[in-house]
Amino acid sequence: MIGVIEASxxxxxxxxxxxxxxxxMALRAKRVVSLLGLLALLCLACAGYYLxxxxxxxxxxxxxxDLDRSGxxxxxxxxxxAADRVRIVGLFSxx
Length: 95
Known about the structure:
single chain
């Protein structure tokens, strides 16, 4: 017969159901946790590079020095030798 389908032929089809809301929320939660983990690893990599990479100063520029009793005389000598140029002294306190 043309155009007639028996009801028994539909029983062999796989059931098509909408995915439950819990399943979708679980997938979103896994995605968020994965992205947060990736972000944490990226932050750790950047912090490690910042802390462990060797510091370089540009050519022709003196590197920063700590002003303690042993280094102050060297600083004073360098400062006095550059009397014909503009000098900037920056003092930073950890507090």
